[in-house]
């Protein structure tokens, strides 16, 4: 808001084309030469008015020439020279003012001396403004009844009231809410500080604080700026700092206080962050500070790992996953590491080639047909090499096969499921259906019927295994089934089972026995060993260990084994002539052929001869369990 000052003392009077300055009785204009003038900055009048004035210069001896306010006596008006000459530059000051006495209100050049102390002055600059608005610099005259009557006090207008009065913040830090226009002795227009950058920053800060009206912004900014507040310290504002702004609505004042409080909190947080950054340079502090975060992270990592592990186990324990694993195992042409292991064994152990036996097994595998299912049983003595021959034949045929070991009374289908790579048998449901479905999927994926090779270990019953094998191979007709059964485990009842085809795998011949020992044993002694004990790989392993580890000669080892077997026979047949006669009759036949007819079956079935003789249900002959007993019997009784 702006207000026009109706009369301003000293007043201006017009004489023809020139403007004259007349000093009133109560307010005398002081003139000073430029060399005595104040160095305070001045502002030109808006229109740059220039004119002539008649100025009455007070006598140096009159008390009116000095400031009447005791508090500002040191800032008295400069002394005038005894004589003002034409062309001398002079400044005009306002008397009885605590702040205007050092700042000129007009400046000009002396034109002529009229009379006494009255001079005609050509005014070049006039620093007064007839407009009063918020931010205007004014000088207020005190009332006549006051103690300091006639004293002028400067201030800044912070509010223009609607009734023509002004709210002025005085230089003595007091606030006058209603100053009438008659008390305004002088207006300098807008104060110089309103054009400063610091002031504009305060106004902008108030605007961002939510003070919408321009008048409120200017009013609050004037009060704060005059009291020394700057924008970088406004966050320290408190309620006591705005108590004098009663002319401002309370909502506006609360906005200012809210902004300052927010900035205080912000500065406090920034200081805390800075302190934290300084502290975090210390590793021990950082370790202590983030120990909880690290612990929580490790706990979260552990939970995530446990969850992932359980989720993985959950998927792997499903029947569909186990079925996929079983199908993949069936579709493999060979076990990934089987061929490499075989090659390594052949290179290191000088693996004995048995092409004739392998070709015979391959010929049998070619005859397998699911339309006319048969169960193949390969049999032979312990140590004859059944497993090696069958595996080599399967590898050469490139047939997808799974090898299953059945031990003791273990369930056949359960052993098959484990051999298929299933880790959780319980989720498979019915094992026969599971194996059948896996074989069906493998055949659909690979185009070949999978082969299951069952190897019966000691204690396994062929009769029990046969029941599950028939259901899988003959009833479902989804796979080929091959069994490896030692001849020592066969009975007459086993050979009578339907859909079983028995094939005998012989022991080593002499050439293979020599190759098995790597030709490291004396040939004469080895020939003697083969004539007495035979070519079984188990016996050859014992001989190899005795010769190369215990440093016993082959001939001595052979004689010791023969002597021990003879003593066993004599001890068994002592006081048993029937057993002796049966063994003597059996030893008369070649060891490989055995005795088919004419044997004393009752004597040969005696429990005392269980470890010496056996019945071969495949050939239907009686045989010695080992050629050593055949040689010992011939040495004793023939």
TrEMBL record:
Annotated transmembrane regions: 287-309
UniProt source species: Novymonas esmeraldas
SUPFAM superfamilies in UniProt: P-loop containing nucleoside triphosphate hydrolases
Record bears the keyword Membrane: yes
Keyword list, A-Z: Membrane, Transmembrane, Transmembrane helix
Protein name: Tuzin
Heme listed as a keyword: no
């Amino acid at each position: 808001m702006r207000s026009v000052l109706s009369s301003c003392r000293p007043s201006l009077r017009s004489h023809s084309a020139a403007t004259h300055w007349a000093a009133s009785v109560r307010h005398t204009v002081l003139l000073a030469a430029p060399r005595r003038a104040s160095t305070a900055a001045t502002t030109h009048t808006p229109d740059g008015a220039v004119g002539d004035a008649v100025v009455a210069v007070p006598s140096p001896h009159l008390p009116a020439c000095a400031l009447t306010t005791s508090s500002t006596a040191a800032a008295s008006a400069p002394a005038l020279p005894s004589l003002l000459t034409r062309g001398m530059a002079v400044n005009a000051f306002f008397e009885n003012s605590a702040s205007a006495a050092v700042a000129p209100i007009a400046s000009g050049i002396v034109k002529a001396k009229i009379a006494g102390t009255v001079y005609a002055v050509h005014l070049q600059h006039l620093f007064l403004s007839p407009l009063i608005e918020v931010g205007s610099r004014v000088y207020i005259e005190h009332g006549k009844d006051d103690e300091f009557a006639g004293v002028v006090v400067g201030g800044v207008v912070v509010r223009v009231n609607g009734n023509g009065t002004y709210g002025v913040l005085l230089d003595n830090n007091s606030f006058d809410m209603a100053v009438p226009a008659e008390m305004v002795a002088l207006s300098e227009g807008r104060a110089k500080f309103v054009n400063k950058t610091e002031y504009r920053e305060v106004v902008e800060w108030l605007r961002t604080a939510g003070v919408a009206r321009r008048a409120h912004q200017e009013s609050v900014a004037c009060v704060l700026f005059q009291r020394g507040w700057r924008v970088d310290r406004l966050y320290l504002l408190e309620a006591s700092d705005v108590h004098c702004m009663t002319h401002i609505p309370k909502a506006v004042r609360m906005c200012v206080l809210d902004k300052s409080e927010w900035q205080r909190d912000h500065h406090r947080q920034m200081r805390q962050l800075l302190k934290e950054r300084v502290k975090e340079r210390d590793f021990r502090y950082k370790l202590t500070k983030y120990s909880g975060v690290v612990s929580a992270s490790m706990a979260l990592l552990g939970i995530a790992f446990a969850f992932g592990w359980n989720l993985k186990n959950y998927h792997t324990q499903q029947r569909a996953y186990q079925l996929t694993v079983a199908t993949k195992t069936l579709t493999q042409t060979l076990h990934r590491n089987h061929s490499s292991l075989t090659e390594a064994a052949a290179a290191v152990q000088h693996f004995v080639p048995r092409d004739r036996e392998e070709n015979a097994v391959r010929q049998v595998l070619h005859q397998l047909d699911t339309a006319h299912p048969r169960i193949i049983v390969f049999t032979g003595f312990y140590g004859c090499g059944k497993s090696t021959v069958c595996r080599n034949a399967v590898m050469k045929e490139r047939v997808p096969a799974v090898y299953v070991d059945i031990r003791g009374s273990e369930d056949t289908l359960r052993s098959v499921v484990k051999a298929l790579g299933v880790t959780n048998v319980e989720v498979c449901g019915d094992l026969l259906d599971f194996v059948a479905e896996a074989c069906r999927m493998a055949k659909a994926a690979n185009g070949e019927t999978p082969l299951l090779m069952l190897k019966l270990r000691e204690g396994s019953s062929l009769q029990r295994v046969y029941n599950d094998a028939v259901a899988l191979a003959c009833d479902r007709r989804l796979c080929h089934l091959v069994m490896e059964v030692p001849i020592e485990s066969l009975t007459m009842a086993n050979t009578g089972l339907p859909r079983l085809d028995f094939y005998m795998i012989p022991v080593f011949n002499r050439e293979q026995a020599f190759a098995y020992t790597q030709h490291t044993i004396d040939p004469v002694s080895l020939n003697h060993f083969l004539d007495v004990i035979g070519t079984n790989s188990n016996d050859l392993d014992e001989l190899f260990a005795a010769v190369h580890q215990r440093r016993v000669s082959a001939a001595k080892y052979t004689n010791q084994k023969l002597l021990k077997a003879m003593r066993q026979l004599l001890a068994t047949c002592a006081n048993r002539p029937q057993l002796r006669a049966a063994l003597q009759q059996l030893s008369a036949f070649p060891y490989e052929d055995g005795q088919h007819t004419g044997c004393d079956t009752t004597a040969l079935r005696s429990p005392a001869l269980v470890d010496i003789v056996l019945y071969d249900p495949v050939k239907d002959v009686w045989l010695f369990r080992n050629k050593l007993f055949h040689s010992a019997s011939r040495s004793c009784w023939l």
